[in-house]
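Hello Y.,

Per our agreement to keep a running log of every chain we model this quarter, I'm adding this entry. I've kept the format consistent with earlier entries: sequence first, then predicted structure.
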Amino acid sequence: MENDAQPCPKCQSPYPYQDAHLWICPECGHEFSLDALGDGEGDGVIKDANGNELADGDTVTVIKDLKVKGASGSVKVGTKVKNIRLVHDSGDGHDIACKVDGFGSMNLKSEFVKKVN
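Predicted structure for the entry above:
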């Protein structure tokens, strides 16, 4: 192991362990890289799939078909979502709260969206 264990950036647990190049928190299940921690400007930075920083009120585009539990269809690639709200401590990885046309209110993971300039 090259570095001493760092507290989990999500729940601040002192018990993360290293598995290959990732650190894993046994308490919340969050996986993180020490390299990625150094790239962020702070603990509250949420980035899209391309690494662009997201902010409340941004417009994003879905980059992958997303199945929606309880719905007959899915959110299709290219769906534009306006006026997002960032959720920093969701605990389940869904860090964007928004309304999607045809589906209503839902939460999305930032890794499946890209920011519209």
